[in-house]
Automatic annotation (TrEMBL):
It comes from Streptomyces kaempferi. Residues 901-958 form the HTH luxR-type domain. GO terms for molecular function: ATP binding. SMART domains: HTH_LUXR. PANTHER family: TESTICULAR SOLUBLE ADENYLYL CYCLASE (PTHR16305), TRANSCRIPTIONAL ACTIVATOR DOMAIN (PTHR16305:SF35). InterPro entries: AAA_16 (IPR041664), P-loop_NTPase (IPR027417), Sig_transdc_resp-reg_C-effctor (IPR016032), TPR-like_helical_dom_sf (IPR011990), Tscrpt_reg_LuxR_C (IPR000792), WH-like_DNA-bd_sf (IPR036388). It comes from the Bacteria. Pfam families: AAA_16. Keywords: ATP-binding, Nucleotide-binding. This is ATP-binding protein.
Length: 963
């Protein structure tokens, strides 16, 4: 912009240390010193932040950063927050990225952005949003991360400059603040300027800088008297005497902007810069800002004032024709006004106008009389729509207008909300709809606006969503489909807020009122689903019987019928019916398709169907379904709760298969996503419970206990059913820590909660297996009875893994030859199952018992097999136990078998080597310029090809394992 180029050529006074920091960062970024010689270290990025009050020189300094970066051959991305544009979603992101992508054709954009096209394209204004569910905010940020990362790598070295960050829109600022710490991992220098007292809380990362940049931003100080004197003499000549210069410093308090404007005033007035005229400086300084500035503006004439007001309402990057239309001026009159404002140093620019400084823009805007300002915003909204800029561009102006029952205003705000919601900015959509509700809308449209408002608040304010949707149901709704959608959405948000009983009651009440059989069936299916997750369901067996009767007569002709059949498959699994019955219904549910990202449907039933295969010892099918489902989530840009559920439950599947290292990687990725969703949510319970169970299986009891304490994992447990059951996992943890009485009490309580509901499958709820172990210390007979009942339930279900696991538990609480027989049968069943970790446990236990029974040869065979299996699983504690038993038998453990590392791709090998050296998944992601989810997938491929886990990875790759 013109103003930036002018100010960038001005001498920067007393900014030597700031410029030195900039020069050092640019040298590290480009790999070149200031003299052109190569820097000793490889190029690397950084984050620099400059903080200071208004007029202190941030914009001038950032202009110099851009100039120096361009001179060194850097790609420069530049944006500026605007006081009037703060509530325009992705305004700053579009300034940064749109210029580098807007020239592409649609085909080129699709090729460049790949799967991110439909997710980030609408947010950046590159394409229209598609119909269907919008991306969640985490998914959109991940997409923006990807775009900026790839631009930084492809067009390196890159400098990103953000001025007036305190005025950046929340969506852009939250994204950049979260991305900022990654700058050091990329060929990217991120430079930010802001007013510290106005920086929002969600941009705290700019206050504490990572790495080389230091511990805090650079605070810009006012100029000294000597610096102001140099500035005055540069502008007015050497004849400016000391007394005049000192007075300039005194009246401006060393503020660079005010000092520059003051010297311009002196020059305009023809004032001689000597002590004789110094007494006039205070009056001139007052005209630079506030009421003095406004008085100066008013002297330019009514048309010019109105044009300035129109520009202040429009904000930054102002097209002159649009400003003329808002001001109600003809083109010639508007051109004269623009010339007058440029001459008065209020505006700058030609093709695009801008205020010379944000302080000037703020003063002009605040000087507009209230009623006139409202009218100008209304006029601006109409002009923006008339220019074809769309409802989203007009919405910020409509937000400033007074409610007046205008149907057109409601229409534009609803349209803007739809655009911003689909672009991934639900907070902005919620503001627009709340304003539309105050207009108010026509009586017959009120329910629809409330419904849309509820949908916009769904992910951020569930309690508010409930209120909006319930209010919508109280309105007279003439469209049955709208009423049904309100009910579905209300039940969904109630369920996801851990209010499952209310969700079920809402659907039951509404299903009795509808005369449409298909609608009633869908409501019944949704009610069945939420009841299946209720820990406090009053009559679960009766619900199971109703579900069985209904599912058996359905053919699966549409999605609703397939949901009911899928719920029947899961119910059979929970109740411990024969596994082949559950599998039969699961296959029926899948026969016509069961997508994970269906419009207006939850993903719960598809996940339950996939888990049915896992518990029935067909985890390969489960993983196929999960791979497709996670791909559905990612294609929709759902990187929050949806993807967290996907990764967490996939981790549980890997755990059940005995691939513990992979399981830990997946669950930690899921937990990171769950932490962004929020503590106490169902997805957070899933992730923490799964991580604790995996850590226990790996033998890291102390770490499991610390994890439970860190995340407050314990009573009270959620009202929703979780996988694995949180209370049972907590009982396992107590048992592993040696707190047997506490463990027995917790596990018995879990049994009292689950048994009356008919949930009797020990493969899903193994509370009896762990309770038997806890009881064996004080009540051995009762422990045996508990374990044998679990064996009976497992045999009824019929899955080999369930039977083998129950038999091993029964063996642990039995004695003598019975223990050996039970363990031998356990191994026999587990060998026919995919439960590798359970098999390893049974083999080590059997080998141990055979050694103690005086059968060393048989013991050695089982211990060696158990050791190898434990190593493959990553069960470090079990590995040590097996080695101890072999040592007690006078035997030495075998060396690990060689691995086929030559099958790894270059990218897989890099990820594997970094992991073997002790790097975390997010650190590996930084090295590979990708995201953590991609790293998890890479490592999963490595573990499969190498035939080991993280424990044996270093040895397999010839690496020294980390200390």
């Amino acid at each position: 912009m013109a103003q930036r180029s002018v100010r960038s050529r001005r001498t920067l006074f007393e900014r030597e240390s700031e410029l030195a920091a900039v020069e050092e960062a640019l040298s590290e970024l480009t790999g070149l010193r200031r003299d052109g010689s190569e820097a000793p270290e490889r190029p690397r990025g950084a984050l620099l932040a400059f903080a200071g009050r208004a007029g202190i020189g941030k914009t001038t300094l950032l202009a110099e950063v851009r100039r120096r970066a361009a001179a060194k051959g850097c790609t420069v991305l530049s944006a500026r927050g605007g006081e009037q544009e703060q509530r325009v979603a992705f305004h700053v992101a579009r300034q940064l990225l749109q210029p580098h992508l807007a020239g592409f054709s649609e085909a080129e954009l699709r090729a460049s952005l790949g799967s991110w096209y439909a997710i980030v394209g609408p947010a950046l204004g590159l394409c229209a949003a598609s119909e269907g569910a919008p991306p969640d905010q985490q998914g959109l940020r991940a997409g923006l991360d990807w775009v900026l990362t790839h631009l930084a790598v492809q067009r390196a070295p890159m400098v990103l400059v953000l001025d007036d960050a305190h005025w950046a829109d929340p969506e852009s600022l939250s994204w950049l603040a979260a991305f900022a710490p990654r700058a050091e991992e990329l060929p990217l220098l991120l430079v930010v300027g802001y007013r510290p007292d106005e920086l929002p809380d969600h941009a705290e990362s700019f206050r504490v800088l990572p790495g080389r940049a230091g511990q805090r931003p650079v605070d810009l100080e006012p100029l000294s008297a000597a610096a102001v004197a140099r500035l005055v003499r540069e502008d007015l000549g050497a004849q400016a005497d000391d007394a005049f210069c000192r007075e300039c410093w005194a009246v401006t308090a060393g503020n660079p902007f005010e000092a520059v404007e003051l010297t311009a005033k002196v020059r305009d007035r023809g004032l001689v810069p000597t002590e004789a005229g110094a007494h006039l400086l205070r009056e001139l300084a007052a005209a630079v800002k506030g009421s003095g500035l406004i008085a100066r503006l008013e002297r330019l004439g009514t048309s010019t004032v109105r044009f300035a007001w129109a520009c202040a309402v429009l904000g930054t990057e102002i097209p002159p024709p649009l400003a003329a239309a808002v001001a109600g001026l003809g083109s010639e009159e508007a051109a004269d006004a623009a010339d007058a404002l440029r001459g008065a140093r209020i505006l700058t620019g030609a093709d695009t106008l801008e205020f010379v400084h944000p302080l000037v823009a703020t003063a002009v805007y605040r000087a507009i009389p209230g009623g006139v300002r409202v009218a100008l915003h209304g006029q601006a909204a109409w002009c923006v729509i008339n220019e074809g800029l769309g409802p989203s561009a007009a919405a910020r102006h409509l937000m400033e207008s007074h409610p007046d029952g205008d149907v057109w205003v409601v229409q534009q705000l609803r349209a803007a909300a739809r655009e911003t919601q689909r672009a991934g900015a639900p907070d902005a959509a919620r503001r627009y709809l709340a304003r539309a509700l105050r207009e108010p809308p026509p009586f017959e449209e009120r329910a629809a606006v409330l419904y849309e408002l509820g949908c916009a608040s769904l992910l951020t304010e569930p309690a508010t969503t409930v209120n909006h949707l319930r209010a919508a149901l109280e309105e007279p709704i003439t469209d049955p489909e709208l009423r049904h959608n309100v009910v579905y959405r209300l039940s969904q948000v109630l369920a996801h807020s851990d209010r499952l009983a209310e969700a079920s009651e809402t659907l039951a009440r509404e299903s009795r009122m509808t005369a449409d059989a298909r609608v009633r069936l869908r409501m019944q299916s949704e009610q069945f689903m939420w009841d299946a997750f209720r820990a406090d369901e009053p009559d679960s067996p009766a619900r199971s019987r109703r579900l069985t009767r209904l599912a058996d007569r359905l053919t699966g002709r549409d999605l609703t019928e397939r949901y009911v059949i899928g719920l029947r498959a899961w119910d059979a699994t929970l109740r411990g019916e024969p596994a082949h019955v559950a599998l039969e219904h699961a296959e029926r549910a899948l026969a016509g398709g069961l997508g994970w990202a269906e419009a207006d449907r939850g993903f719960e039933v598809p996940i339950l169907v996939a888990l049915t295969f896992m518990y029935a010892d067909r985890p390969g099918r489960t993983e196929e379904l999960f791979a497709a489902g996670i791909a559905d989530f990612e294609s929709q840009g759902w990187h929050g709760a949806h993807l967290s559920f996907g990764y967490t439950i996939l981790a549980y599947v890997r755990y059940r298969r005995g691939r513990l290292a992979e399981a830990e990687d997946f669950v930690r990725a899921g937990l990171r996503l769950a932490e962004r969703v929020g503590p106490g949510t169902p997805v957070h319970w899933y992730a923490v419970a799964t991580l604790v169970e995996i850590l226990l299986a790996r033998g890291r009891v102390a770490e499991a206990a610390r994890t439970a304490e860190e995340y407050a994992f314990g009573a009270p447990f959620p009202a929703a059913v979780t996988f694995p059951d949180a209370q049972i996992v907590y009982g396992q943890l107590l048992l592993a820590r040696g707190l047997t009485k506490d463990a027995a009490a917790e596990l018995a309580a879990a049994g009292r909660r689950l048994d009356p509901r008919g949930i009797r499958n020990p493969s899903w709820c193994p509370w009896q297996l762990h309770l038997a172990r806890a009881e064996s210390h004080d009540a051995p007979d009762r422990a045996v009875a508990t374990a044998l009942e679990a064996v009976q339930r497992a045999r009824q279900y019929g899955a080999p893994s369930a039977i083998g696991q129950a038999l091993r538990a029964a063996a642990e609480v039995s004695s003598g030859s019975t223990r050996v027989k039970l363990l031998e049968e356990s191994v026999s069943h587990l060998e026919r199952s995919p439960a590798a970790y359970e098999l390893a446990c049974a083999l080590v236990a059997l080998g141990t018992e055979l050694r103690r029974s005086g059968r060393p040869k048989e013991a050695a065979e089982h211990l060696y097999r158990g050791l190898d299996a434990a190593v493959q699983c990553g069960a470090d504690g079990l590995v040590e136990e097996a080695r101890d038993e072999l040592a007690a038998a006078g035997l030495r453990p075998r060396r690990l078998h060689s691995t086929e590392t030559d099958t790894l791709t270059a990218r897989e090998r890099t990820a594997a080597v970094l992991t073997a050296r002790g790097r975390t998944a997010d650190q590996v992601a930084g090295e590979l310029h990708t995201d953590e989810q991609s790293v998890v997938r890479l490592l999963s491929a490595v573990y499969r090809k190498v035939g080991t886990d993280r424990t044996g990875l270093a040895a397999a790759l010839g690496e020294q394992p980390p200390a």
